[in-house]
UniProtKB/TrEMBL annotation:
InterPro entries: ADC_synthase (IPR005801), Anth_synth_I-like (IPR019999), Chorismate_C (IPR015890), Class_I_gatase-like (IPR029062), GATASE (IPR017926), TrpG/PapA_dom (IPR006221). It holds the Pfam family Chorismate_bind. Residues 455-643 form the Glutamine amidotransferase domain. Its EC number is 4.1.3.27. Residues 119-376 form the Chorismate-utilising enzyme C-terminal domain. Keywords: Glutamine amidotransferase, Lyase. PROSITE patterns: GATASE_TYPE_1 (PS51273). Residues 660-682 are annotated as: Disordered. This is anthranilate synthase. It catalyses: chorismate + L-glutamine = anthranilate + pyruvate + L-glutamate + H(+).
Amino acid sequence: MTQLRHLLTAIAAGTDPGPFALVRREGAHALEVLTGTLRTVDRLTDIPLEGGPAGPRTLALVPYRQIAERGFACVDDGTPLECLALDGHDRVPLAEALDLLPGSTVPVLGGDFDISDPEYAEIVGRVLRDEIGRGEGANFVIHRAYRGTLAGPPLPAALAALRRLLTDERGAYWTFLVYTGARILVGASPERHVSVEDGLVMMNPISGTFRHPDGPADRDALLDFLADPKEIDELYMVLDEELKMMATVAEHGGQVIGPYLKEMAHLVHTEYLLAGRGSLDVREVLRQTMFAPTVTGSPMENACRVIARHERRGRGYYAGVLALLGVDEAGRQTLDAPILIRTAEISPSGELRVPVGATLVRHSTAAGEVAETHTKAAGVLAALGLRPPVAAPGAAGPSTDVAGRPSVSAELRLADDPAVRAALAARNHHLAPFWLEQRRPEVNVLPGLVGRRALIIDAEDTFTGMLAHQLRALGLAVELRAWDELTDLTGLDQATGLGPAHADLTVVGPGPGDPGDLADPRMAALRTVVGRLLESGRPTLGVCLGHQILAGRLGLRLHRRTAPYQGLQRDVDLFGTTRRVGFYSSYTARSETDGVTTGYGPVELARDATDGAVHALRGLTYAGVQFHPESVLSRDGLAVLADLLGWLLPSPTTAALPAATAGGAAPPGAASAGLPGRIVGA
């Protein structure tokens, strides 16, 4: 008797089979059967991962509350970090598994969302107005949950739901059922969170949702969706956020691959793949990437605060991950971790919970996000018999698996349509080549920067990790410190011996919030360090929030935009050269003139001709940019950094910069003030 038959026989007899998991991974023609002993641990580093023969070792159920390990806010609902230490791993051909799994449905009593449509719409409006509108971040994910009670035994109901997901759902990364004795998770997650194999780390940002809940996707409507700025921006923003994560777990950051379509039964998503080489323990990879921006928001740390403010209840396993840890034949660690979305959580007493969320961005409408949550729940609810299944489009033609049965891996063919492929490819035309291309470490090095040191102050936005990769690519040695880690902001850090006084360049980085709010300790500290850097004359670069703080210290007026610049790409004039760059901001400095005189010397301003918004500034020993040169949205970001470093760190050599960085002029009054002209070849 196979392990699957044994489990199903025990369940049919009303006997507890012990902890197990059934998993079908994307493209596989077999259902994996995992059995073992359950352990509860406190931290990700405690997840057991022992050596031995190649194969999976542990399946971990990581709840959302585990985000507290990173020091981020959450409503702690006590959901445990459970680990199935594996002692059995079997593979059953998919056709055989489908024959064995039960097909009957179990009625669900009293099912409905815990937050009504009007209530959810009101929350959406508050987040758009009070959070995105006030500069707290670019996008946030707020969830609601469908709740009900099964009118029969939970395990047979979950097995029947699994069978329907295997036959009716398409495009899932993992289709699975996990039973621990204390809970059941059954779902079809479209999204890989992170995987590690052969030293290659991969992430899979998915965003943008085209809904077709009542039938096959319409090609023309899909093309309209692919051209929708809201959907395009939504994917770009999560792409940037996952590149931030890749910056911490891959040696040279992540390379962007795609975009692609992720086609499922009720909806179509757009997605990218990110890949990079790394050597961290896979449990540390998990910790550094908690959790995907597609289920939280950005910037990550503040997104967690916003979620806690507006949800006011725990998330359970929603937005967490399943994580299958193991070793390969060479003894290297492996990891495969789908995000826990499109998943039903079922208690031993039959209480059902299906959590879903919508990504709120500046273009969002309350009605659209309400509809999105219904569509995202539809696949799991259909598997539970609460919604009618959606048939595969006839245009896809018949498709069978290796056993001649209808294939559960049949792909819709919209992705092969030439117009669809062209629409997807066009999305990369204005993105930063630095992140799209394979990078050789020496290609972008500027000789005048080799041996010089930069200190980046992180103001709670891990864009600084991407910025560090770009500065290193240009030749600098880079250290990264949180704003509250420097015990003396102008002297030495006690732990590292580093500080602005011992760096050739200090970068005051981006972060959320109101730059004028001096009641915020972060803003007050940043204002202090920028003031002392100006007084000392040490080279300083401000990025986004750092730029706003610098502008404020120079006497420029700060202004909150009526329409936030969150995830916005623009062509701007930077000191005589047009650059395409990406903005993530709700605040800006303003000026009526292109240059001002301050107590720290003359300042040249690159500003918007219509409203006076200051896109960039530069003076004797300092510069600032309102946009993010490190963002994937900043096509010309590396060239902008090269220009700024040439300005701030002049070199006696004159090695030529790449052609893209040419141009620019000295600020007004430079000669009379002793301000050095632009140095080519920093």
